[in-house]
Amino acid sequence: MSNNKPMPVPTQISAPFWEGLKARRLLIQQCNACSHWNFYPRRHCPVCLEHDLAWREVDGAATLYSYTVTRIATLPDFIDEMPQKLAVVELAQGVRINTNLVGLDEGEIEIGMPLQPVFAEVDAKGNRLLRFTGVDKDASSLEALPAQDSEPLSVASEQPAVQQIDMNDGPALQALVSEAFCDWSNVVVVDQALINAFAQLSGDDYWIHTDPERARLQSPFGGTIAHGALVQVLQSRMKLALGFEISGFTTQINYGSDRLRFPAPVPAGSRIHSRARVKKVELLARGTQLTLELTTHVVGQDRPSVINDLVILYIA
Question: Are the C-beta atoms of residues 34 and 45 closer than 8 Å to each other?
Fold first, then answer.
């Protein structure tokens, strides 16, 4: 989850609402003069115009008034949430709130369906946003921050046997060449702290990587992005189920890259994963050379962020 997403800024009027969410309480205003419930927060009752409003806790029972599904992120920081289910919900008290639906597949969403609140944690400081899900869902499981480095997106119940291939077995090696990629690797989160650490290590502290406020205003990407070299290096943290292992060598060398491209940015906070295919195998005098095409993508994006034709040399 991106840590550069624009967040609501509490004002003197709205602060009780946001503080309530931190404590997992939904507070809305009620007029003491006419009992009218009020949202969004304001200084006076829109019905009787009295300046006598009190904050009262409600249970958040609601129905779905309207919704839309958006598939294109308004800012790169929201790529990890696509598609978003943007909604207007109506509380039992009659007020309507703009929000997001979570934990629901598109086929489950129906106008008028009953909903319950989700106090979704959005940063390590305990800030929360109000979202909603179906009354048959486990709302508490939708409240926690996503794991920073998760397990593979899908794991087979039984791992297939790994094929052992000798480095001198030409026909078996050539049979590995394929247009088909392996399954996706585990997921790694590229947050601002990791980007900053790489900037300090590499000396590349250009503002488009390290200055979130300036990048939000001036960058064509709407926020900071990871260095292409960082995303390439993170391929080493990707656990790929290639289905084979090369044997019979004494030394394995990363010989370089035949092609290295960075077609798409990785916004700070993105979740990335990789897949690979064997592109070429050559039996040479100095050893067996295998070219592995590695592509790294932001989760949910078809366009890769890194294309790396990695050349591996096996020496007997």
Answer: yes
- The neighbour count for residue 203, using CB atoms within 10 Å, is 6
- For the domain covering 15-142, report its CATH number: 2.40.50.840
Query: Which residues have a Cβ under 8 Å from the Cβ of 309 and sit 6 or more positions away?
Result: 257, 258, 259, 260, 279, 291, 292, 293, 294
Residues 295 and 279 sit within 8 Å (Cβ to Cβ): no
> Is the Cα torsion angle 60, 65, 68, 73 positive or negative in sign?
negative
Decide if domain 163-315 falls under CATH 3.10.129.10. yes
Q: What are phi and psi of 29, to 5 degrees?
A: -85, 145
Contact 244, 163 (CB under 8 A): yes
What is the percent of the chain with per-residue pLDDT over 70, rounded to a whole number?
Answer: 92
Distance CA 225, CA 42 (A): 37
**Nearest-angstrom CA–CA distance, 15 and 27:** 11
Size of the chain, expressed as the number of residues it contains: 316
Q: Is pLDDT larger for residue 74 or for residue 119? A: 119
Strand, helix or coil at 17?
helix
Looking at residue 43, what is its pLDDT?
93
Q: What is the DSSP letter of 7?
A: -
Of 5-14, 182-191, 227-236, the poorest mean pLDDT is in 5-14
Residues in Cβ contact with 89 at an 8 Å cutoff, skipping those fewer than 6 apart: 62, 63, 64, 65, 96, 97, 99, 115, 132
Q: Which of 212, 238, 210 is nearest to 295 (CA)?
A: 238
Which phi and psi (to 5°) does residue 90 adopt?
Answer: -115, 115
Structural domain boundaries in the chain: 15-142, 163-315
Which residues have C-beta within 8 Å of that of residue 83, sequence separation ≥ 6?
69, 70, 71, 106
Mean pLDDT, rounded, of the chain = 89
Q: Tell me whether the CATH fold assigned to 15-142 matches the one assigned to 163-315.
A: no
Alpha-helical (H) ranges within the chain are: 15-22, 170-174, 192-202, 207-210, 212-218, 228-233
